[in-house]
Each structure stands twice: as C-alpha cells, then as structure tokens.
Write a structure and sequence with these properties.
The chain contains 3 helices and 13 strands, in the order αβββββββββββαββα. It is of the alpha+beta class. A hairpin with an 8-residue loop joins strand 12 (200-203) and strand 13. The chain is elongated, with a radius of gyration of 24 Å. The protein binds 2-acetamido-2-deoxy-beta-D-glucopyranose (3 copies). It catalyses: S-ubiquitinyl-[E2 ubiquitin-conjugating enzyme]-L-cysteine + [acceptor protein]-L-lysine = [E2 ubiquitin-conjugating enzyme]-L-cysteine + N(6)-ubiquitinyl-[acceptor protein]-L-lysine.
C-alpha cells in the first residue's frame, strides 16, 4: 500500500516536470493560458503558436501580450472557443496589427489625424465624424483629433488652423483610446473546434510543418481516489510526453 503511494507520487512528480506545457495564469483571476498562447518565459516554443507570446507583468500580475516592435497590451480575457481576446492599455499610441496574427473584431474604418491648437474648444470636434482625441499623441499645446474618412474636410471649417498629420487605415473607432476594451480575433490557428469539443489543441505530434490537432480532455472527470485516477493520469501524461518529444522543432 505505502509503496504504491510512494510510486504514485514519484511518478506524478517526474511526469509533472516533463509536462512543461501547462501553466498557471498570471494571477488568480487572470485568463487561463494554453495553446495557441504560451508564457514565453516559462514555456518552450512548442507550447504556443508563433506570435502568441504572453508574459506576466512583474508589478501588476497583469497578463501581457507581446507584439512586434516592443508593443505590449494587457489581455483581460481569452475566449478560446470563439478565438477572441479582450485587450486594453496598449503601450503604443496606435495599435498596428499588420505584423501580428491578430485582427480587430470590431468594424474598421479609415481615419485622418489632425493636430490642432488646444485653444480650439473640444466641442468643435464633437459629432459623427470625430473619434476620441488621441490623448497619447497630444501635448505641447496641440491636441490631436481623429476624423473618419467619410467626410470631406471642406465641410469641417474648425480644421482651418489644424495641421494634417497622417492617415490610418482599417482600425476601429476605439483604436485611439488606450483605455478602451478592444477585441481581437485570430484566424489561425483554428483551435475553436477543439475547444468546442472539450479538447486541447496543439501541434500534431508527427507534424513537420506545424499542423495542429485536438487531443485529450479539457475537463477531465473529477479526481477520485488515487486508485481510480492513477491509470488515467498516466495515460494523459504519457500522451503529452510523447507529444513533447515528437515535436522538437
Ligand atoms: C480604407 O481605405 C482603403 C484604401 O484606400 C480602401 O480600400 C477601404 O475600402 C477603405 N475602408 C473604408 C471603411 O472606407
Ligand atoms: C502598419 O504598419 C505597416 C508597416 O509596418 C504599414 O504599411 C501600415 O500602413 C500600418 N498600418 C496602420 C494602420 O498604421
Ligand atoms: C500524422 O498522423 C495522423 C494519424 O496518426 C495522420 O492522419 C496524419 O496524416 C499524419 N500527418 C503527417 C504530417 O504525417
């Protein structure tokens, strides 16, 4: 009996160490982290899909998504079934997703940015053609206003003392508001179907080019006594270990 328990714990310990693709969330209520995401400091590359690197903020325990050009956003929620994440608080003034696996989930529009003297009352820029002033671009006595491309500047006389900065294509209305809750989707990899079936998603163990497959069970039956869970745990672990060694890329 006692030998059995020692064996069980030894085995459990050793397989837990090999099973390096499970990760705790950054905080108690932080989003669950699993494929296609990975915690880049704790998990090897095969645990996540390229471009889905997360990290935990050392100060706030927020879950951070690391995008190219040192852009970081806070991930507040991950909906694995719908392949949708909620983000906010970008450290970049304007989120450019062109080199990321993500797309804006909300409708996108084209905008022009204008830099105007802050002496012009904010009220002049209210109405359907204006989005939030871009606080992070403003300063030095200038206020940056964002105009949707739907209206000719000829009909907007308040712009006469403003300077046109540049155009921005295909972003949602809230893209200039760092406090807004933005939603991003990812078209690839398609893991939503695995999630809907209650399975994990991951790289195919015999894949040579990063194909993915569904496996295992996201919600294993409740743990019984060690006697009943023992064979189950072993089966599950050995499958993951196999997977790990079979995908060394
Ligand atoms: C934004 O501009 C691009 C290129 O000029 C154009 O193809 C697209 O249709 C525009 N989108 C909207 C919503 O106006
Ligand atoms: C994003 O960056 C790419 C180049 O890296 C550029 O071509 C594109 O216009 C940018 N998009 C926006 C919305 O600024
Ligand atoms: C991997 O194995 C599965 C069955 O085990 C097979 O259907 C699939 O075609 C294989 N893929 C590659 C890339 O060999």
């Amino acid at each position: 009996m006692s030998i059995f328990f020692i064996l069980f714990f030894l085995l459990h310990l050793s397989t837990s160490q090999l099973d390096d693709c499970t990760s705790a969330p950054c905080s108690k209520h932080g989003p669950t982290i699993r494929f296609p995401f990975r915690l880049k400091d704790n998990q090897p590359p095969h645990c996540g899909f390229p471009g889905f690197d997360l990290s935990c903020s050392p100060n706030t325990a927020a879950t951070l998504l690391n995008l190219p050009y040192s852009v970081q956003v806070i991930v507040t929620n991950i909906d694995y079934k719908s392949q949708l994440i909620h983000i906010k608080g970008s450290n970049s003034c304007l989120l450019n997703l062109s080199t990321t696996p993500f797309q804006f989930a909300d409708s996108v529009y084209n905008f022009s940015l204008f830099s105007c003297p802050s002496t012009i009352p904010v009220e002049s820029f209210e109405g359907p053609w204006w989005s939030t002033p871009a606080a992070c671009l403003s300063g030095d006595g200038q206020e940056v206003y964002v105009k949707s491309s739907g209206m000719s500047i000829c009909y907007l006389p308040q712009l006469i003392s403003c300077r046109k900065m540049y155009n921005v294509w295909s972003v949602p209305y809230d893209a200039f508001d760092q406090t807004a809750d933005l939603q991003l989707t990812w078209p690839q990899p398609v893991c939503g179907n695995c999630e809907a079936e209650g399975k994990f998603c991951g790289f195919m163990s015999n894949s040579t080019s990063g194909e993915i497959e569904c496996f295992g069970n996201l919600n294993p039956p409740k743990k019984g006594t060690p006697f009943s869970s023992f064979p189950f745990v072993c089966m599950l672990k050995s499958e993951k270990v196999k997977r790990k060694f079979a995908y060394p890329k």
